[in-house]
Write a structure and sequence with these properties.
Elements: E1 3-8, H1 11-15, H2 18-31, E2 38-43, E3 55-58, E4 62-64, H3 69-81
Parallel strand pairs: 1-2
Antiparallel strand pairs: 1-3, 3-4
Helix pairs in contact: 2-3
Bound molecules: FE2/S2 (inorganic) cluster (FES).
Length: 100
């Protein structure tokens, strides 16, 4: 596996549309022929609840926040297919729950 993905399945990210994000990730992986190169799993809360849906990618680790279905498709194309992370959508330290 080239990449391992952990999509938050916690209550806040689920309320923010993580199920739709999961379907978009699976669709994009299928369309780009990456199903055998990428492992997608669901995780528990990733402690960035106010910014979900959240997606953690290894190697990295790289955490994406606000992963809508549109962002999910772009992350698959740019980060997973082209090995070019999208910095603008990554978490910053102040986003962690309880920070600040
Ligand atoms: S529920 Fe997803 S980060 Fe907390």
């Amino acid at each position: 596996m080239a990449y391992r993905l952990y999509l938050c399945n916690g209550p806040h990210c689920t309320a923010r549309g993580a199920d739709t994000t999961r379907r978009a990730l699976e669709q994009a992986l299928w369309e780009l022929g990456l199903l055998t190169a990428v492992e997608l799993q669901l995780s528990g809360c990733q402690d960035h609840c106010d910014h979900g849906p959240n997606l953690l990618i290894y190697p990295g680790a790289c955490r994406y926040v606000g992963v809508t279905s549109e962002r999910a498709a772009a992350i698959v194309a740019c980060h997973l297919r082209n090995d070019t992370p999208i910095v603008a959508w990554q978490a910053t330290p102040d986003m962690r729950r309880g920070a600040g």
